[in-house]
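[agent] plan:
  1. take the single chain provided in the ticket
  2. run structure prediction with default settings
  3. attach structure tokens to the ticket
  4. add a short note for the reviewer (M.T.)
[agent] executing step 1
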Amino acid sequence: MAAEKSFEEYVGFDNKMWQVHKFGGTSVANADCLVKAASIVEEQINILDNSQEDNGVVPASGVTNLAVVVSAMGGKPKVTDLLLDSVDAAANRDDGMVNEKLNFILEKHSNCLDALQIDAAKSQALKENIKNDIDQIRDILKTVALMKWKASRISELVSGYGETWSAQILSELLSSRS
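[agent] step 2 finished; step 3 output follows
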């Protein structure tokens, strides 16, 4: 697993300093990686909380806000690649390949959620959400297949789902650990 990228500090829209952590696909590739990412985020939250509680002022670094950015799940194969491959397959009217790619994505996320052992109802809700999103992607790809054409906007739309799913899973993992 690649280490998370170092954070950058900058003045945000509210004139407060922000600490931003970016976790690439390798850092959120599976349940073990997500647990490590969650630990890093929790550690940073504790540092911010403790420095503010100790002296009642903004931390010495000036950081008062924490943001976390995640990529789609990496590994082999990467979720973004699978999503883009599904668009290509749809443009080639290869329904079998579209279903293979999308089913693999669903299975990859479901297996990850099972391994995280978060609250069963919340895990199931996330699985259903991902399944519904994949059903929406299937509908989008039907249009691609009918037109035999993949527009860059469709590729961008479809590939963006992976980051959303990673963010939802990491968010639920952090909530379950607090």
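[agent] step 4 note for reviewer: The chain is about 65% helix and 10% strand.
[agent] ticket updated
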